[in-house]
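Predicting holo structure, cytidine-5'-monophosphate bound.
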Amino acid sequence: MNTHEGLSLPAAAKINLYLHVTGKRPDGYHLLDSLVAFATAHDQITIRPANQLSLVIDGPFGRGLPVSDDNLVLRAALQLRALAGIHDGAQITLTKNLPVASGIGGGSADAAATIRGLVRLWQVHPGLHDLSGLALGLGADVPVCLLGRAAYMGGIGELLDPVDDLPAVPLVLVNPAVAVATPEVFTARAGGFSPANRFPAPPSGTDELIELLNDGRGNDLAAPAIGLIPVIGRAIERIAATNGCRMARMSGSGATCFGLYQTQAEADAAALAIGQAEPHWWSVAGHLLSNIHDL
Ligand code: C5P
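Done. Tokens:
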């Protein structure tokens, strides 16, 4: 599609390969050290030229998400329009393939794809406007989704150091059909803070990536999330029990968990097996992405 006919942009799931809570700001937001990458599973944003701004939501998880003014896609569009002094509209369709409120940044990825698409449609000059500030105002995960590259995330999500060429590890994403309220998980977190613990050097392949992730790097939000919603623990156990699973853990504040595999056939079989064992859960196979433009 060209900008005249409209634009179609994938909004890839983000995955926190590890996530350390390193501190807390006076305003209550938490400081993080996280390695964020993306997965091939994605929502889709389609944008067509129009006089008015409008949003339609469809797709398998579309019903869980009403079109309202606090929808991240509409907020992104309205705020970009105000920031750039644009008077045009756009007809936006969000095809919601990813579960809502699930730790894989679906809403954040949708907002980022909307910004990227409208910048093209409305010919906004990215250098003239603070798009990073706009992204952060929409949510702590929106800046990394707008960057669209794997990155170490610091601050509350605004300090990004891109990491190139993570291995395209085969994976499964599993959501045990529960939505999680991120603030509740942060509040339930007990104990002190963890140190930042970036990799000393980029991993050369799957084995090294998994070794580095197992070496004192985990998800500090997993224990509080499982405490609130025990079925997340069962999802991790189910993934860990599949053939060839090299690592199983939760992403973000949950409830979506991921498993890493050596081969795509193992990941595909795992997604199928979990889907059969737990027909109400969401379970898909794919692979890790360092750059969403490879989708
Ligand atoms: O920024 P976002 O809307 O994704 O965050 C949702 C909530 O999660 C925040 O209101 C805050 O309670 C919590 N949060 C946090 N520290 C972060 C990101 C989110 O405490 N770095």
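The beta strands are 7-24, 30-50, 53-58, 89-95, 151-154, 159-162, 170-175, 245-250, 257-261, 282-289.
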